[in-house]
């Protein structure tokens, strides 16, 4: 047998024995896994259901249509494109659909919690577009909406981005829209992180305020790795685009064209099938219980960490994640991430707002509860986990302690399946 399967088994063991705190990860169900590992991977299907550039697409047409219909129902939207291979691809399609190279955009600064694709200088978004950004207030760790408006009115970006990778609070989409309207900008929400909580109404909905919305499908939404674009009916006619022949296109046509043939070729129908399965699961009432548990676990973890003297940026969380500022503990994010890995706890180092350390070192770590909730952990386990993290941070160079914490971690996870919902 190919050695790759030994490595896959090794990775399964790693995932099973450890505590997974990476805020952007989750564990999918066996059914999602089955769909993604199916014969659908063999099929080419450039185009969209009913309008393909290849023969034999009757079955994948049904698969993709089901994925679209379920996503529409789940988020209560009128337009969905399930083809983006990843969150970044979904985002690239938005840029292509809405802007011309060189146009100005405004997103949350990467060092304050934004994502690479929201204008980072090392990403296509920062390379091809002019970027201005907003951030959080130093004292509160909360988005500074006044500063955002001030910069927006002065700089007049063509597109405003509401979204984050490392911000633990809900977003005021109505406020973003007010500002976007003042300058005639397109408002795009990237809900890659909180999508599962948004789907269940546990966080503010972006759909009535934002022109377009993108997400990943693999974080709190608990599907296979991938991306998706959504839009409410009201925005369908907002941006008629003229083709070279002079015809006006609907926004949905423009978005579809931006994904294929704009930035992608053949869609990954096996992944789209996995998305359809995950959306079906998310429509079930069980997913609501899951999403509520993700949120309560995050709140319990933030409290348990605070009780142990950790500084949580903004003082808590409304969603599934939190940023821990480690400066008062005398350790940095890089060494903490490394020590936690030795104790079988995975998380990622992360810059905190107004960080004085580089992105390679950082002053913080980001913790999330989506994955450990899927494994069946509850509020009381969050106290145990905060205790284990604290032990690691207090003994960051003590291999004996790290080994003993690892033992406790493995005991806690013993007998727990990856997917327990
Ligand atoms: N947008 C946000 C807000 C994200 O946090 C991420 C991933 O972390 C992405 C987009 C990109 O997703 P992907 O890694 O699938 O390209």
CATH architectural name of the largest domain: 3-Layer(aba) Sandwich
Total number of β-strand segments?
17
Mean pLDDT across the residues is 96
- Specify Rg, calculated over alpha carbons: 22 Å
Count of discrete domains = 2
Please estimate the helix content: 40-55%
Bound molecules: pyridoxal-5'-phosphate
Strand arrangement in the largest pleated sheet: 4-10-9-8-7-5-6
Main sheet, how many strands, which sense, barrel? 7 strands, mixed
CATH class of the largest domain: Alpha Beta
The end-to-end span amounts to: 32 Å
Identify the overall geometry: globular
Our estimate of the beta-strand percent is 5-15%
Oligomeric nature of the chains: single chain
Low-pLDDT ranges? none
- Stated plainly, the CATH topology of the largest domain is called Aspartate Aminotransferase, domain 2
Structural class: alpha/beta
For CATH, the homologous superfamily of the largest domain is named as Type I PLP-dependent aspartate aminotransferase-like (Major domain)
Tell me the number of helical segments per DSSP (H or I, 4 or more residues long).
15
């Amino acid at each position: 047998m190919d050695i790759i399967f030994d490595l896959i088994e090794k990775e399964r063991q790693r995932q099973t024995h450890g505590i997974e705190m990476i805020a952007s990860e989750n564990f999918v169900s066996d059914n999602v896994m089955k769909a993604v590992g199916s014969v659908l991977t063999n099929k080419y299907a450039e185009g969209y259901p009913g309008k393909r550039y290849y023969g034999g697409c009757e079955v994948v047409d049904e698969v993709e249509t089901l994925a679209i219909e379920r996503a529409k129902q789940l988020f209560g939207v009128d337009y969905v494109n399930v083809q983006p291979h990843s969150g970044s691809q979904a985002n690239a399609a938005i840029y292509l659909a809405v802007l011309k190279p060189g146009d100005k955009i405004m997103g949350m600064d990467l060092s304050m919690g934004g994502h690479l694709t929201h204008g980072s200088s090392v990403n296509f978004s920062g390379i091809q577009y002019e970027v201005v950004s907003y951030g959080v207030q130093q004292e509160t760790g909360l988005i500074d909406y006044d500063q955002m408006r001030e910069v927006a009115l002065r700089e007049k970006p063509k597109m405003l981005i509401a979204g984050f990778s490392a911000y633990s609070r809900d977003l005021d989409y109505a406020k973003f829209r007010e500002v976007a309207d003042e300058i005639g900008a397109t408002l795009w929400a990237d809900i890659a992180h909180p999508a599962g909580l948004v789907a269940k109404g546990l966080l503010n909905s972006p759909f009535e305020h934002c022109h377009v919305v993108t997400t990943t499908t693999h974080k709190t939404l608990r599907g296979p790795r991938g991306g998706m674009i959504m839009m409410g009916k009201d925005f369908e006619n907002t941006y008629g685009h003229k083709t070279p022949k002079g015809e006006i296109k609907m926004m949905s046509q423009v978005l579809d064209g931006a994904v294929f043939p704009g930035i992608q070729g053949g869609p990954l129908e096996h992944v789209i099938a996995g998305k359809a399965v995950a959306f079906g699961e998310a429509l079930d009432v069980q997913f609501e219980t899951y999403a509520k548990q993700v949120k309560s676990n995050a709140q319990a973890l933030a409290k348990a960490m605070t009780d142990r003297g950790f500084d949580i940026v903004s003082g808590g969380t409304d969603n599934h994640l939190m940023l821990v500022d480690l400066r008062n503990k005398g350790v940095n994010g890089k060494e903490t991430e490394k020590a936690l890995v030795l104790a079988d706890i995975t998380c990622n180092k992360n810059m905190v707002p107004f960080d004085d350390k580089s992105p390679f070192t950082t002053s913080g770590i980001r913790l999330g509860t989506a994955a450990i909730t899927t494994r069946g952990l509850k509020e009381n386990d969050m106290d145990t986990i905060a205790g284990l993290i604290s032990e690691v941070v207090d003994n960051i160079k003590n291999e004996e302690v790290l080994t003993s914490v690892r033992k406790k971690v493995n005991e806690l996870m013993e007998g727990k399946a990856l997917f327990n919902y």
